[in-house]
Design brief:
By secondary structure, the protein is mostly helical. The chain has one domain. 82% of the residues lie in helices and 0% in strands. It is built from 19 helices and no strands. The longest helix is centred in the middle third of the chain and has 38 residues. It is globular and about 65 Å long. Keywords: Antibiotic resistance, Cell membrane, Membrane, Transmembrane, Transmembrane helix, Transport. It is found in: Cell membrane. It is a multi-pass membrane protein.
Length: 462
């Protein structure tokens, strides 16, 4: 299908408009969307207020399962959208059209199969993660509903990634904000009015995503857009599926390693917490609260990544390396500002932030505030490391992106979690301090590889 000059021009702007203006145009909606998405954590506040601290501690155990499902969804969404950006930069509009159908096919099949498998083995999985008799009930109730709607989550996230790569970052932002607004309306209704407890919180999340998924389908059904859905079965192309999965593999490994780390952390905190006066459930709950607050900062940086990737991918495909380097420079500066600000805010207001989630449990509040301050200690360095993974991914350097994704989580963090508890007098602190220690080491690797790549790109500039 031939595209009009006007439709092609909307993508040519990625290689022509000022880089700073483009980065703001793409990054701000993505940042707002990801920050809004992090407000999903407000349902944790509702759970803490309406169900109780036991539910909050149980919810902390669902983190590894959520990360596992996110790993598969991100591999498809990020891989497909990156491939889409590169093809649009090359003006290969036919392949870009096929990518849309293939991403939908992958999200559908993967979302259904993964949700079913995890649902079958949910109880032993949660026990393996360290669930006690107190926390197994709420954790199981929450994940049963979430996994039932897993296919909705996958398709919603996949289409949102494609909205950004097809020059509609504002629409992607609106979709994300829409899910947050719906969730904030439905969660208190289901919890406080209908008294559905933690299942109501999970149902609010799934319903919110389903509502916005319908809107995304409406947007992609518009034939006036360059890339749109057609009223026929998609043209399944295994080369597109293969390239999408390979390109998205770094993001998959990031989430998979995060899942492994989360499993080891929850099991270690349960073990060492029970050996001390802290208690296993309190140690895990404190980490769960802190991790949700830290995730808010990380999600903002990921939003910046999402705004950067279509611009970087397009200009790399168009061989405009000077613009590519400018995008990288500005993105790293912004990422560092975000993580530094987040570090200061969490360190200063750790106790008030923890109190939002557990007002009736002083021990849980104290442990969460202590954990949060340790986790954000090296956060000014984290922005560069996250941005480097996204940059290499956006220009198709999957090997380097995968390596950087593995350095913090697998190469550094996992061994540190096993070693540091035996060095610290309080082994719980040893588990927590492994996080900032891994950040420092991963930062050093990231800046080394990034400097090498910058020198190579500078030699290609004519």
């Amino acid at each position: 299908m031939l595209m009009t000059g006007e439709k092609q021009e909307q993508f040519n702007a990625l290689g022509e408009q000022p880089v700073g203006k483009l980065l703001m145009q793409y990054a701000i909606p993505a940042i707002v969307a990801m920050a809004a998405s992090s407000i999903y954590n407000i349902i944790d506040v509702f759970i803490g207020q309406g169900v109780g601290p036991e539910a909050i501690m149980g919810l902390a155990l669902t983190g590894p399962v959520m990360l596992l499902t996110a790993a598969f969804g991100a591999m498809v969404g990020v891989g497909g959208s990156t491939l889409m950006s590169i093809r649009l930069g090359q003006k290969d509009y036919k392949t870009a059209q096929d990518i849309l159908g293939n991403v939908l096919f992958m999200n559908l099949t993967m979302g259904l199969s993964l949700g079913f498998i995890l649902q079958v083995f949910l109880t032993p999985i949660l026990r393996f993660f360290g669930a006690s008799n107190v926390t197994i009930g709420p954790a199981h109730d929450f994940m049963t509903v979430i996994l039932a709607g897993n296919v909705v989550t996958h398709m919603y996230l996949g289409l949102n990634a494609l909205l950004r790569s097809t020059n509609r970052p504002q629409k992607a932002m609106m979709a994300t904000i829409g899910t947050v607004v719906c969730n904030c309306l439905l969660a208190p209704l289901f919890i406080f009015v209908f008294h559905w407890g933690i299942r109501g919180a999970a149902l609010a999340t799934v319903c919110s995503q389903l509502i916005m998924l319908m809107w995304q389908f409406h947007l992609f059904a518009d034939k006036s857009n360059l890339v749109h859905l057609e009223p026929k079965l998609p043209n399944i192309r295994w080369n597109i599926i293969k390239k999408s999965l390979i390109t998205g593999l770094p993001q998959f490994l990031i989430n998979l390693c995060a899942c492994l780390v989360a499993i080891l952390i929850t099991r270690s905190l349960t073990q060492y917490g029970n050996e001390t006066s802290i208690g296993g459930d309190i140690a895990v709950g404190g980490y769960g609260i802190s991790n949700r607050l830290v995730l808010f900062i990380v999600m903002i940086v990921i939003g910046l990544n999402q705004g950067m990737q279509p611009i970087a991918g397009y200009n790399y495909g168009a061989q405009k390396y000077d613009r590519l380097l400018e995008v990288l420079k500005k993105a790293i500066i912004f990422a560092t500002c975000i993580t530094t600000t987040g570090c200061l805010a969490c360190f200063i207001f750790a106790t008030p932030l923890a109190t939002l989630f557990a007002k009736d449990s002083p021990a849980l509040i104290q442990q969460a505030a202590h954990t949060l301050r340790i986790m954000v200690a090296t956060f000014p360095l984290v922005g560069i490391q996250i941005m480097s993974v996204a940059f290499f991914q956006s220009i198709g350097f999957s090997g380097k992106s995968i390596f950087l994704a593995l350095t913090r989580q697998l190469i550094f963090l996992l061994p540190l979690i096993l070693i540091l508890p035996h060095i610290f007098s309080n082994p719980v602190n040893g588990v927590i301090f492994s996080l900032p220690a891994a950040d420092i080491l991963a930062f050093l690797i990231a800046i080394t590889l990034q400097a090498q790549q910058v020198r190579k790109l500078k030699r290609l500039i004519k």
